[in-house]
Design goal:
three-stranded antiparallel beta sheet; Cytochrome p450-Terp, domain 2; 3 strands; 13 helices; mainly alpha
Length: about 260
């Protein structure tokens, strides 16, 4: 329940001189050595005891979102670490700023569409409306297509197979994604892959993660991946190479350059 009046309160953590509690659990007696990081994370975020299926789905999602090579977030982290090696947390934070509506964090955009489809009286018609609207606007549908993985994004279909094997899940958000996938293919006149964040949107929705919270899971996961990039940068630096490559690959096009070449 949201507290809208009166003095603000928190139910996340409290402490005394001799103890510390996460919600109603004693950190030392109930959590440390008893629970995994994923269990405690979900307890804190969802405010309930996570089920086995919640843990399995979340672990799979976190693994999938952790890494995708030298993407904008990783490049940013490496360059900032090169510039300020005393500030590891700043380099990770800089990379996390790239978790957004174009890369890594697109599950939020997709989940908004899945919510619409799941709530519609005619989910298939709603999915087709969404697909045609995006086509008319010449905009990609969030959660679909990938510039590196073709003809399919293997991560997405692995995640969906894992979720379909879980009888405790309702399947509502997975069905919404399937309706949207069929509509996207029909509107495009060809098969368009569901990408990893499209599958993540459906899976996190299945375990009750609110749409506006989903991008936080990308932040948590990618932070671990960016720490790994810093470790590699410490032992095999690439920041200077990236800088030099860009400086030579993008020439200056000003008056001085034109005069020199005349």
């Amino acid at each position: 329940m949201t507290n809208t009046v009166g003095t603000p309160v928190t139910s996340l953590c409290t402490h005394t001189l001799t103890s510390l509690h996460y919600r109603d659990a004693n950190l030392v007696d109930d959590l440390v050595g008893q629970k995994t990081f994923t269990e405690v994370m979900l307890m804190q975020i969802l405010n309930r005891k996570p089920r086995g299926v919640d843990l399995r789905i979340t672990d799979a999602v976190l693994i999938v979102l952790m890494e995708h090579g030298l993407t904008p977030s990783a490049i940013t982290t490496r360059l900032i670490y090169m510039s300020a090696p005393e500030n590891l947390q700043g380099a990770v934070a800089a990379g996390l700023m790239a978790v957004g509506s174009s890369f890594v964090g697109t599950m939020e955009n997709c989940s908004l569409l899945l919510d619409r489809i799941a709530a519609a009286s005619d989910p298939k018609a709603e999915a087709m409306t969404i697909a045609l609207d995006h086509k008319n606007l010449k905009k990609p549908v969030p959660g679909f297509g990938h510039h590196l993985h073709k003809p399919v994004d293997p991560r997405a279909y692995k995640l969906l197979d894992l979720a379909r094997a879980e009888p405790e899940l309702s399947g509502e958000k997975i069905r919404a994604l399937e309706h949207l996938s069929a509509a996207v293919d029909a509107a495009a006149g060809r098969a368009i892959t569901i990408n990893a964040t499209g599958a993540v949107a459906a899976l996190l929705g299945e375990i009750g993660v609110a749409t506006r919270v989903m991008r936080g899971f990308a932040v948590i996961s990618r932070a671990a991946g960016l720490v790994a990039h810093i470790v590699e940068e410490q032992t095999s630096p690439s920041g200077r190479f990236i800088w030099d490559t860009i400086e030579h690959a993008i020439p200056f096009d000003g008056a001085a350059n034109r005069a020199e070449n005349e």
